[in-house]
Amino acid sequence: MRKCLYALITAACVVILAVALVACSPAAPDGPKASSTADGPKASSTAPYLSNTSFSPRTEQAINDFIAACGKDAAAYRQNAYVVSDFDDTTSISDITYQCGTYQLQTMSFALDPDRLRAAISTDVDLNADDNAAWVDDIDAAYRQLYKAYGPFSAAGLDEAAQAKLQQDPQWAEFATKLQLFSLHVEDTLDYATGCKWTLHLFSGMTESEVYDLFKRSCETYAGKETQIATWTSPEGIESKIGVVSCDIVLGVSVTDDVRAMLEAYDANGIDVWICSGSHADGVRAAVDAFGLGDYVDGVIGMTQKLEGGVYVPAYDYETGYAWDNKGGGAWERSEHAIRALPGREGKVVAIENALVPRYGTGPAAGFMDSGGDFNFCTEFDSMKMVICYNLTRKITDGAGLVAVVATYQQDDLHYDFASANAAGDTLYLLQGRDENGKRSLRPSNQTLHFGETQEQLFANEGNEKLLQYLEENGLTTKEAFDRFAVSRDAGDPGNVLKLDYGHLDEYDGYHSHNGIPDEGLSQAA
């Protein structure tokens, strides 16, 4: 495990910066709650703050101001303070599910015979639309050939010698390339929720521990590798319905020392840390352990797949899929609350309200995001004091592209810092850059250096610039910006002031529309 690269600063040094900061969260309904770590309340000691990290100076300062306002040395400290972070491309750089999908194909870690694989990849897919039947037929034909020659396969995968032999077979290139592309095809052609949960079907036939082990092996395999792009191509010599296709695959995933240091600082200051991810819950638990975050992360919310007879089937579990408590030392335990949601977009709000708000008596105090899948929970809770958006240069048709514009507007036009944003009743939004090259890192900037590029980038395109200009010229508030531009509008729609496509949601509850007060009944989002 790599050591965290931050220095300890006394609480007194930071309190000077935070004299005017507001209290972090209200008391829980039944009084302050005990810390949810396995070892009981966190120890009282001089609390660490961040220093000399690769966060942008403004982001690092805001993190320290947040800790001063919400941590255990704050005058108004409540033991129910917690933060919620996405995992893929937020806690980590790169996506653990996409990386695991590549690793699963390289090692042939499948627990399904050919008939069951075909059934799994056909679930939730209309075989009469979008060439879906042709894709499924090609994948099925190649898998049957591989299964006959090298199977049966298992969740443990093949050893290195068997992998090397199998990958020389043209049928493997046919199968691997087309299953990778079909996964992307499904995401592009199905509705958001169905596209997200379809990825779970490939883990059918496995137990919880087998999915955990598969993700853990994948994370450990690619954590130390520099970012690279591999091109897979299906062979010309195989008769097929789709024909010859190619796909580029990004290899390499990591958690930076700076993010690890930030999570450690929250933990040391009595602030609980939760992950809420659109990846498989077992996979997120594995990633937390693989990347050495187990001492700082209190629990995990992830996608919940249905179990039958102790193994997963190709169906989502909306009823008995639970959040997971981290008990330490690699031990995990189901929490008492079912999430009853698919944790993406509005589903993350529902999952947090079902699993965390009853536990803490309030909503999260800070959020961490990178995409439109995180937009709702990072804008709808009025308990949010700070949100860090990792800059993947999203367009304004993605919620993170809108957040990037608002973060820039808050910085350059509203001149917000943590104290002034909170005094105005707003969440402080921060845009954090990163470097996707080499072994991946954060950058002390709000701009990102994408893989293979030499020039850093703030926005995706002129659409972000035009939206920022509109906010500046019209003096919009943070609430007005989110409420007006979160819902999808085509460029030609009447009343579209930008004359550009914008927004990514069909409906939006609104900025600070959720108060984080526990309800007796559970919400549910499909």
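^ that was protein a. below is b, sequence first then the tokens
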Amino acid sequence: MITLRELAGRPADWQLRKPSLRRPRFGAHWVGPSAIAGSVAWSWLAFAGAQGEDGPVAFGLFIGAVSIILMAWSFVLAIRIRFLEPLFGGLDAMYRVHRWIGALAVVTMFLHIQIEPELDGTGILGASKSVADAATDLAGLAETFLYVLVGVSILRWIPYRFWRLTHKLLILPYLAACWHFYTAEKSYANGSGWGWWFGSIMVVGTIAYLFRVVVRDAIAPGLPHTVTRATLHGSTLELVLKPDGKPMKYKPGQFAVIKFQVSGLREPHIFTIASAPADGYLSFFIRSLGDWTDRVHRTDLVGRPVIVEGPYGRFQPNQRAVWIAGGVGISAFVSTIRLLGDGSRAADGPPVTLFYSVRSEDDAMAIEVLREAQAAGHLDLVLCCSDQGQRFSETVMADHFGSTTLAGAHVAACGPAGLVAAAERAAGVLGVHHIEREDFDIRQGFGPDLSRPIDQLLSRFARSRIRVPQIRSNR
């Protein structure tokens, strides 16, 4: 059974992770957030000057519309459209925007309902009064349902695979809100320009959801592959996938969404591609960090089908590069390191400097590839093994470069949050105020992650009726 101590977790489990504030960089990645902000700001003009029985009601009507606009945008971002990546700064940034505008949509819906804006009778109903009243009642029920879904989302007691199913139900309060908005009394007619504007937004949001669930998840989920090799390196599993047909075209440093076609492992997860584009196969490093990765490690996957969606990411280092990796985070750089000697970099250019933080050298992934690149003079490898008292820090990086400035260098970090934060501080001291990073924390919230104990509890009940997956022996 799950104990009270497990339910309580640690104090850190109940702290909300706030978005980090970094020095702004101007570029194409501002286009996406600006488009969202612009669509919201433009919509204010539809309600400016609206009056109710007790005074202005423009703000109350406006934030109701904002809630629908933000929900529609969140559905669009959930599709994982590749051409949107540069407009938001990468797929991980798209997920963060998706999460925060979703949270803001809930807040604006709550405020709209608390204000209860009503026009003074000069507004235009979108439907008959009876239909509008029924839509209002339905929206009230949908509001309660939305709060339940939000509670499931922010409470990490609920395992990811169950949360993912409930997350798909968010379309129901969205549709109810759209129906209420369409039928309610407004300062414009549904057939007017503003009616077409908001109607188009509602339709786009609905189509985006259907495309995500029907097309992306069911009809065209990705390219079929088969697992041909599974090698265990300590707590990290290396999987090699062979394409069943047309191979995926990708660039070094990109990542993909993999979906095993195995009962209990079907939920999608994002991993960096560790193989090189010319290899003819895909390889991934998967570390045991939760209930899903635990089951991946325990299951004999050789010969099993897997769907791969992608590729995503725009990893484009320049001639001078400094990379910081922690544990399985080395996957983000292995593919590029394999190609360091292929002429893509200037022969007289400086070698790539790689700080690789691991528990021990035995835990280092692709160490042969790293040593080979180091011997060829393409890689300046700094291995930080914690079992030898060597941990990556600002001091380690500063001592390595001495008085040399890194201004203009490509600095990238991939690994645990603490290591990435240390890399940002160290780079700042050496003249680099922005580093490239990936942060795929798909689900944030409060409380301890109870995925493992709940998975174990469910396994006990199901063991007598469901075939237990084969356990791969350590070989």
